[in-house]
Design a protein that fits this description.
Blueprint lengths: L8 E4 L6 E4 L14 H4 L8 E4 L2 E2 L8 E5 L15 E4 L2 E3 L4 E6 L11 H18 L7 E8 L11 E7 L4 H17 L3 H12 L3 E4 L3 E4 L10 E5 L11 H21 L5 E6 L14 E6 L6 H6 L8 H8 L1
Length: 322
């Protein structure tokens, strides 16, 4: 029987414990249409945040970076936001938010934007996190960008996305658990220790500036994966300072340009691992950004065994990128 409901539904795989999102609205997402929906925004939802040349404005006809609700959302902030509807231990419908962060130039991606425009993107992330985390149903805020068709981008016009989630996914839970265990045993941040090692050894170091480091991880999940992390311990992305946003814009731009120059292709995804919004102390956690070029495909073993096969040592990957 066909389900005619349009609400997003979360279903739990009883064997693995993984949650799956069923979002019928996403089936209507237009791909590669002739008229860009983000250049004029005439058929889009009303913006929730507008920047024009570094300043927050109210004029939606003049903008350099803008945040709008996604017209084809994964989650929808429907009227009853006071409680989620949980039908059983393996099925749930819950409100959420799905927003797009769009830069004004249709043909320029992050690697081609000036630093001040990239900083505006981080300004938007910071502002929206601070607002969205006030909703008690929001347990995590996922921030990511898909660039290029290989990376899942439905539109050429550069944009990133913000999705609020009513729970913490299994992988992030494991990262948080490992970070907490390490801190309790050593009274030190695990990621701070990793960063110190990468700076000292330099074997996997790709880029570095005053406040950030970019490196190929010791055991990457993808070839030429890069992690960008603040050198100083920071648990929350939204606490990022103005000068840190400039340095983050600088190192991200350079890292993406590494892909463009060294790999002859720069379809990529990036996403930010931030502390959850679950009213617990996550001061031991260290936020970071992951950058992944889409240069290959997963095979049956990798999907079935959930174990990636990397054909180059991370140290060699770093040499190529440098």
């Amino acid at each position: 029987m066909i389900n005619k409901k349009k609400d997003t539904e979360l279903r739990n795989n009883l064997l693995s414990g993984d949650w799956v999102i069923i979002a019928p609205a996403r089936s209507n997402v237009p791909r590669g249409n002739n008229e860009c929906p983000f250049c004029s925004l005439k058929d889009q939802e009303e913006p929730v945040l507008i920047y024009n040349n570094g300043k927050v404005v109210n004029d939606k006809t003049k903008w350099t970076t803008i945040v709008i609700p996604n017209k084809y959302p994964v989650f929808t902030p429907f009227a009853n936001e006071c409680s989620s509807e949980k039908e059983s231990c393996f099925k749930m419908r819950t409100p959420g938010h799905h927003e797009l962060v769009i830069t004004s130039n249709h043909d320029k991606n992050i690697s081609e934007l000036p630093i001040k425009r990239i900083k505006e993107i981080f300004d938007c992330y910071q502002s929206r996190i601070q607002i969205l985390k006030k909703n008690k149903l929001v347990k995590y805020i996922s921030i990511f960008q898909n660039c290029g068709e290989k990376a899942g981008a439905s539109q050429k016009h550069p944009h990133s996305q913000i999705i609020t989630i009513p729970f913490i996914d299994k992988e992030l839970q494991m990262i948080i658990s490992n970070s907490k265990d390490y801190f309790e045993r050593n009274n030190k941040c695990l990621h701070c220790e990793i960063i110190e090692r990468e700076i000292r050894d330099k074997q996997r170091l790709v880029l570095e500036n005053n406040t950030f480091i970019a490196y190929v991880p010791y055991a990457p999940k993808f070839t030429f994966q890069i992690i960008i992390a603040p050198k100083k311990h920071r648990s929350l992305f939204e606490d990022i300072a103005e000068e840190e946003k400039i340095d983050l814009a600088d190192i991200l731009k350079k890292a993406i340009n590494k892909y463009k120059k060294k790999l002859n292709d720069y379809a990529y995804n990036f996403f930010i691992y931030n502390s959850p919004n679950d009213n617990k102390d996550h001061s031991f956690f260290h936020w970071y950004l992951i950058l992944i070029p889409r240069i290959g495909y997963m095979g049956g073993f990798e999907v079935g065994a959930n174990m990636e096969i990397i054909t180059r040592y991370p140290e060699d990957q770093a040499k190529i990128l440098k």
